[in-house]
Amino acid sequence: MNNQTRLPRAAITGLGVYLPSKILTNNELATFVDTSDEWIVQRTGIRERRIAAPEESTFDMALKAAQQALASANLPGEQLDLVICATVTPEYVFPSTAALVQAEVGANGAGAFDLEAACAGFVYGLSVAKAYVTSGMARNVLVIGAETMSRVADWTDRSTCVLFGDGAGAVVVQAAYGDTPALGEIESVVLRSDGTKACDLLIPAGGSKMPASEQTIRDRQHYIKMNGAEVFKSAVRGMADSFQQALKMGDFQLDDVDLMVAHQANARIIEGVRARLNLSPAKVYKNLERYGNTSSASIPIALHDAVHENVLKEGMRVGVAGFGGGFAWGAAIIRWGNVNV
After folding, report:
1. Residue from 26, 161, 293, 304 carrying the catalytic annotation
2. Are 74 and 210 part of one and the same domain?
3. Domain span including residue 251
4. Long-range Cβ contact pairs of 253-258 (< 8 A, separation 24 or more)
5. Looking at 26, 140, 161, 263, which residue is catalytic?
6. Each residue of 127-186: pLDDT tens digit?
7. Same domain, 87 and 118
8. What is the pTM of this model?
9. Catalytic residue status for 263
């Protein structure tokens, strides 16, 4: 059997990010929100976050991250077969943000769609990319997580607005054949959800159930509403359990993992996941103190920073886990390849 008739592996070959230039520190935030740097750091671990400029949108950030990822993979946009954008803050209700990116990168004729699994969106996107590539339905897939969370944060609610930031991250997933360990592999992915907890983390208005009206605007129903205690408990359990399930699916042990990159939601949540897994603190990567919670963008941004800081290296096995509204959560085990950033 030659390489072209074997089922391919799905390998991450390119990685890109975009972060807005504006930095909003906790001290600056405290000038218009009833909070303080100490209060935020103690409860979240966040010290600052990036905020998109008025002229920047989710599409703008997604495109820049996508272009960087394509350059990292040395892949022309016209060779893409599929573009996936995970986001809860799309450019429009329709068309998809992914379609706008598809046009700008020159991926003529490629499929394109948005995927909505909130802060678990990037892991869900990886799962779709892996399925398309390993089934032979696509050879080159672009997966983007992009969010302007500052546009849906309620800046009068200190329990939520202090958490969020804006940004985008993207990866190129390509078919890999034969013995090419330098390309790495998305080795296993697990997805889970629990729709009975939908109302514990949501934006109530703007959909078909509660269309925009003067009343919904007055009642501030177009902003994030969160049951923090339930989200915390479910996020820790969901990410840790799906991480263990992804290990089992790939026939791995916890010791086989060199690094964990969890969704950068809150330092206490990440520590809870680490403790539940009984993972060494040295194997946990965090960068949320610089960016806050960027929803579906947090994992690719963290992967980029880990590579840039030489924490994540070729040949290492990294586990990623995400959790978000739905509730939706999941985890993936990835053998990291030679990815340039």
Report:
1. 293
2. no
3. 187-335
4. 254/278, 254/279, 256/317, 257/283, 257/317, 257/318, 257/319, 257/333, 258/283, 258/316, 258/317, 258/318
5. 263
6. 999 999 999 999 999 999 999 999 999 999 999 999 999 999 999 999 998 766 557 899
7. yes
8. 0.96
9. yes
